[in-house]
Amino acid sequence: MNTKNSDRNGCRLLLVDDDPVVINTLHAGLTNAGYHVDGYTDGASALAQFETDTPDLAVVDVMLPDVMGTELAARMMESCYRPIIILSGHSDLEIVNQAIGCGVVGYLVKPISAEQLIPSIETALVRFGDINQRVARHFGESGSDNDHIKAVLERFSLGLVIVDVDRNIIHQNHVARSLIAEKSVLANRGGCLRAAANQRSDEFNRAVDQALGRDGEPGVGAVTLEDPRGRSIQMWTAPLTDSETGDSASAVVMIIDPSQPTPAPEPLLKSLYGLTTKECALVSALLNGQTVDEYCETRHVSVNTVRTHLKSIYRKTNTNRQVDLVRLLSRLFANVSPAIVPR
Questions:
Q1: What value does the mean pLDDT take over residues 58-75?
Q2: CB 257 within 8 A of CB 233
Q3: Of 334, 328, 323, whose CA–CA distance to 262 is shortest?
Q4: ω into residue 218 within 30 of 0, thus cis?
Q5: pLDDT tens-digit profile of 174-210?
Q6: Helical axes 292-299 vs 303-317, angle rounded to 10°
Q7: What are the C-alpha distances in Å from 35 to residues 86, 283, 290?
Q8: Which residues contact 301 (CB under 8 A, 6 or more apart)?
Q9: Residue 242 C-alpha from the chain's centroid
């Protein structure tokens, strides 16, 4: 079941309850109060709607036919943090603790009317609005500036997460988003950045606290975490200064996976040094640890041909040895994501 109403005041709510009577009653009351409401009776449909057209706030019943409401809330906030209110027919302490653990902002016992629900909705929206204001301070008041800075962050192959003083995730680039989704090293818990289960959470927390200046002057922190596949993921944290107050109101977490290949974007190599397509392929292989012999074998070319290409590359990049070439280009491209570079 899906019910919709035209947007009247710009605030969009997602209502999820397995009882059509509850959906219809709350939908009518909230609509009359000026909200735009989408209503669903199952978790799968509600999650799909949340991920494709994220609302300003969700109201989720704790007992759904296909999933627990607390689990649905956690999945929603892994996709994108929004304030979520849980509804329940009883105040079971275990379920209350589950709701708190997944980061919901409210827990209300049914039966409840729209009029009784509205104060909790408005309180949650104001709280979330405070977080949005912090985003504006760090990314600029202009929407175009905001988009520009986010686009720059997406160009990096290292993971970048910006958190506020409460560790709410303000922004994450595509690398960090992918790693957090794995839940093997880092996790998004109720919109907050946390170390994943079985990780050295105390060390990670200290590194973030150091950047936020919780125990003194803000400073740079570091910690190395290992994922189940044995990768050592390096984390560096650093303070971001509030331009208005001069205080460290947020921090950036830089995530480095040394096992990831170093990209050598062909368009940039051609633009910067005038390399040919074959020379670009050779440079990329050398940057990622292949020897000349291995390159010859995989590409089915002769050693003499590769040496000719190398001489041309040395001349164009003003280097004399393979080690100097690799050092130069590693510094240049180590943090550039090849998927973002236009071709």
A1: 91
A2: yes
A3: 334
A4: no
A5: 888 888 888 888 988 878 898 887 777 888 988 898 8
A6: 120
A7: 18, 57, 59
A8: 295
A9: 21
Separation of alpha carbons 10 and 29, rounded Å: 17
Determine the 3-state secondary structure of 109 from DSSP: strand
Type of residue at 68: M
Q: Please answer whether residues 200 and 207 qualify as being in contact, where contact means their C-beta atoms are separated by less than 8 angstroms.
A: no
Q: CA 281 to CA 266: how far, in whole Å?
A: 8
**Cα(55)–Cα(35) distance, integer angstroms:** 11
pLDDT over 60 (residue 146): no
Closest by CA position to 251, among listed 173, 135, 140, 161: 161
Q: Do 220 and 211 contact (CB within 8 A), yes or no? A: yes
Count the neighbouring beta carbons within 10 Å of the beta carbon of residue 248: 19
Helix, strand, coil shares of the chain, percent, nearest 5, are 45, 20, 35
Strands 36-40 and 12-16: parallel
Closest by alpha carbon to 124, among 14, 249, 248? 14
List the structure tokens of 66: 């296909």
Residue with tokens 């590769």: 306
For the whole model, what pTM was predicted?
0.48
Residue type, 314: Y
Cα dihedral 4, 9, 14, 20, rounded to 10, equals -50
| Residue 43, helix vs strand vs coil | helix
Domains, the chain, ordered by start: 2-134 (3.40.50.2300), 142-256 (3.30.450.20), 266-333 (1.10.10.10)
What value does the mean pLDDT take over residues 209-237?
82
Q: Rounded to an integer, what distance in angstroms lies between the CA atom of residue 192 and that of residue 43? A: 23
